[in-house]
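Quick start: read one record
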Amino acid sequence: MKKDEIIQYWIKSSDEDFEVMIDLFNLKKYSYALFFGHLVI
């Protein structure tokens, strides 16, 4: 993989984790939402 491909992979992964975090937060699953939040960061 080239550098740009690796960067795009991690950006896409972070965007997906952010969506999961929001969904978990809305379901009041706060500890799991926090876990995914730390993955996004």
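Residues 3-40 form one domain.
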